[in-house]
TrEMBL record:
A Pfam match: HD_assoc
NCBIfam families tied to this protein: dGTP_triPase (TIGR01353), PRK01286.1-1 (NF002326), PRK01286.1-3 (NF002328)
Keywords: Hydrolase
One GO term of the biological process aspect: dGTP catabolic process
HD domain sequence ranges: 75-221
One MF term in the entry's GO annotations: dGTPase activity
CDD domains: HDc
Family of the protein in this entry: Belongs to the dGTPase family. Type 2 subfamily.
Name of the protein in its database record: Deoxyguanosinetriphosphate triphosphohydrolase-like protein
PROSITE patterns: HD
Amino acid sequence: MSIRDSDRPRYADTLAPYACLPDASRGRLHNEPESINRSPYQRDRDRVIHSSSFRRLKHKTQVFVYHEGDHFRTRLTHSLEVAQITRSICRDMGLNEDLGEVLALAHDLGHPPFGHAGEAVLNTCMERYGGFDHNAQTIRLVTGLERRYASFDGLNLTWESLEGLAKHNGPLVEGAVDPLSLPENLPFGLRDYLKVQDLELHTFASAEAQVAAIADDIAYSSHDLDDGLRARLFEFEEIRDIPIVAQLIDEVTWTYPDADRAVMVHELVRRLINRMVTDLTVETGRRIDALSPAGVDDIRTAGTAVVAFSPDMAVAVRALKDFLHARMYRHYLVNRMTSKAKRVVRDLFQLYIAEPECLPDEWRDRAGAPESVETARVVADFIAGMTDRFAFREHAKLFDLSDVKL
């Protein structure tokens, strides 16, 4: 008996009516036998965790490049933290934890090395060739570039997982579109895949996908604050300018006046996360009550996100992000590494597209003529898959002439 037959009563009885039930999944692009002991979304999660792209997140920048300290977040630890927050919220709301976890673990797979700086440079380099977008690159990875299975390329994830990865931040187009005449402003990876499978980009994603998206905000804003304090980019007194943080600092210092600085930082961050999660669940509950969705399609066609912060919390989170942008992401120490990272990505792209014979064999075989669209896409895929340290090493091999014997 399959999981789909045996688990319907259990899932239907324990999940909200608007949750994504495993037995109601729209399935996979390539048909496969059902697992006898895992739901479709559990299989999706396992495939993500065992993918090469997921392992590479260990050495991809969140804010600080990997070698700057052992305790700073990487894309991998960030993704695990997002997954934990997502599962907790989904459990509290009666949503499908497994689907939420898939989306949380996979949401950053398409990020190139060096964080948003690497993505910005790669997008500029690809401007003539359709651009670069890390969300669309995630779709490219899980639908083709990951090559682990004999029967198909990619991970062959369920429709619900692909939908959530594609549009977790909301609809990408207005109204249903013809896959043969897609809007030019859609990122290449999505335009390419929509010719194969319609992900209904004109609607919102499931509630699970919306939870994963906002859990990402919760994780990176609170944990970047943590990393900034650990790196001494700013001190406690300086972050009192952020209203929600000021309140929590007062709570922590009053409750634990003799605690050391490291414990104070941890207490502040955990309370910040709890405050945001609590606000999110209350506001989302209010929106769900107003909508009274009978099924997941009511969530998709609601016309607005159902998972959200309250207006006051949204303002508070915006203030926190503005502080981090000004005092952390633009700090001169971060700027120095960002500048170096941009040069590395730009140099690699320009060399590979002009001289594709310098690519490793398996990538060179996929490339076309120098400067062609085909070669540009192969080069972007190759660079996007690099870890920070591999990009540095590759750059040194190709551009460092110090060991040349004259």
